Amino acid sequence: MKAAALGDSDALEVLFIQNREKLIRFVQSKTGAQDEVEDLVQETFIQAQLSIHKFQGNSKFSTWLIGISYNIIRNYLSRSVHKKYDFVGGEYLDQIQDTRKTPEQENKAKELMTSLNDALANLPSDSKDMILSISVDGQTYEEVAQRHGCSVSALKSRIFRVRQALRQQMQDHL
User: Fold this and answer.
1) How far is CA 19 from CA 26, 27, 73, 163, in A?
2) Cα–Cα distance measured from residue 60 to residue 70, given in angstroms and rounded to the nearest whole number
3) Which pLDDT does position 87 carry in this prediction?
4) E strand or H helix that includes residue 165
5) Of 116, 112, 114, whose CA–CA distance to 131 is shortest?
6) Angle subtended at Cα 14 by Cα 8 and Cα 17, rounded to the nearest 5 degrees
7) Computed over its alpha carbons, how large is the radius of gyration of the chain?
8) What is the pLDDT of residue 86?
9) Strands of the chain, DSSP E
C-alpha cells in the first residue's frame, strides 16, 4: 500500500487486481447497468490512481476504493438520461392509439353541446331541474321527488317525458 501511495504503478496494479471483483459486484448492485459496469469500474480506478496520494490509511484500501466508486456511480445516475427517463421503442409507440379528437369531431361535439343547452333552456324550469339533478348532479329519485313534492313514480314518468322531448329536439344532432 505504501509503495502504491508513493507512485509505484506495479503496486497500485496489484491492489486494483485484488479489489476488481469486489468493485464489479458493488457497481452492478448499485446501477443494474451491466453494459456500464466496466466503464464505471475503469473510471473508479482512474480516479483512485489520480488520488492515491490522498489515501491516509484510516480505512482499508477496498473501503476507500468503494467510496470513490460510490461517488462516480452517484454522478453517473444523476446524469444518465436512461436512468431519468423510460425510453420506449417504436413498436410500443405504434400500439398506442391517438385518443385526441379531430377538429371535425371537436366541432361536432361543440355543436351537440350547444344544441343540448338550447334544448334544456326550452324546458320548463322544474323539468330542467329534475333532469339535471338526476342526470348531472347524481341525486336520487327520492331526493328530487321530495324536493318537487311528488311521488317517485310520478317523477320517473316526468323524467321519461323530458328525455323523450330532449331526444326529439336533438334528433338532427344524434
Assistant:
1) 11, 12, 17, 80
2) 15
3) 61
4) helix 152-170
5) 116
6) 140
7) 37
8) 61
9) none
